[in-house]
Amino acid sequence: MATFDPSTVSTVELEREKYRKSEGLKSVITSVVSALVLVAVITVSLQNSPGWQQVKLTFFNWDVFVQSIPAVGQGLLLNLQVLFFAVIGVAILGTLLALLRTSRSAVMLPLRWIAAFYTTIMRGIPMLVVLYLIGFGVPGLVTSRISPTLLGTVAVILSYSAYIAEVLRAGFNDVHPSQRAAARSLGLTNLQTIRMVVIPQALRKVAPALMNDFISMQKDVGLISTLGAVDAIRSAQIMQATTYNFTPYVTASVAFICLSVPFILLNDWYSARLRKRELNGGTV
Amino acid sequence: MTKDTKAVLRLDKVTKAYGKNLILDHLSFDVHEHEVVALLGPSGSGKSTLMRCVNLLERVNDGQIWLGDTDITDPRINENAIRARIGVVFQQFNLFPHMTVMENIILASTHVLKRDKQESIDKAMSLLERIGMDKKAKSFPDRLSGGQQQRVAIVRALMTDPELLLLDEITSALDPMLVGEVLEMVMELKEQGTTILMATHEMSFAHQAADRIVLLRNGHIIENGTPQEVMEESQNPQTREFFSYFRNL
User: Fold this and answer.
1) Which CATH superfamily does the domain covering A64-279 fall into?
2) Which of A1, A186, A206, A277 to mutate to test the interface with B (most CBs of B within 10 A)?
3) Most-buried pick from A1, A89, B129, B156 (CB within 10 A)?
């Protein structure tokens, strides 16, 4: 096969490349300057607003920020634990619901209805209400104490499974029927076909949407604080109650942002890669 | 065909309807061992439906289909086991885009026939070498040309040592240059004694490769004979009309 040697291109291409580089440099300089201007405008207008000094003391107090790090950090470990188990739970329950929703066998009909009902209702109830219903309702039902962390995790799983199930269902339906036909023609069973052909392709298609829900879930595990579990938010609240300073909440927010940024970047990168692949080297 | 050769595939009054729309009307014919049968006919004549019935992707409404000694229309049979005995190649290749060429090829061997993985890889490699594509084993299907994808699809269908190979218009999605390399591969399979039932629009290829031609029209068999008998000597006006469209090509 013939190969392309970039060092032998014509002067026309060299000239074009030089022009593109200079244009690229210009746009970098423009974006740096506009960013600096924006930061300057925000800083000046904040400094000049009458209540800024007070707001700065209660929300952005550096000393309180540093003091709050150990407690908030300790709480964040609980959030991470909850997140870990919630992700596993949501993956299992969400996939199960999606499979039920897309199954076509007659035996599954009642289960299909239940799954449809579940996803419809669950996506309609505010997350906070689900937390209260599970967190305070279930202990009332069995009249014994259950760890709020456990109940919070269950509530997060129940709520998010409904969203994830719908995303996955869209993915399953998006895999072309000819792929199933090809797999079944090779003699694969229905389950093998779903596991080895449908799910891997569906996941690829809906990966950006799934990661988006994951990022959203990452911060929503902070809501378990409403049940009394001592997580990052709850720790911040405890500190705020004693010092009357809101900076610990900012500390917790910074912690959650730090958690989500890698996944946001990963998601952006992956979406861009998918897009690039679909464009197949085009420029528009 | 002599009487003593075994029928690999036997269709007996096969009937298929979608609602009240009759697609296949009591079709009967055999495909014998080492025989290449070309299924011809205009679009909508029932070729693809017949292929899908043989591969159990569609359920027949009446009649029986026998694969060797098994009645594959019997609802008590294990459909997956039957499908593994038939190799299928589709018009649109239908390779799995998330798997490499090698993974595509060995999937049925390792997961349906439960053969040893290394053994499957070795076999796949030797098949790929034969079509000069061993260097593409680790590539993903979207990096291959249409002709290469279709040849990989054929190799994938051959991995389970099928008793019968179904080729469903396998060159219809390819440009004329790529058609050649795929048809060459089919000729090679014929020489090795593979039993093939193929639906095709490549008339000259059907003439050259097929031992027998079955011509379908509106769900009926209007011809069943050697290429010579069907394409050149038939006096049936419907047959002559069908082939008249291809005379000038």
Assistant:
1) MetI-like (1.10.3720.10)
2) A186
3) B156
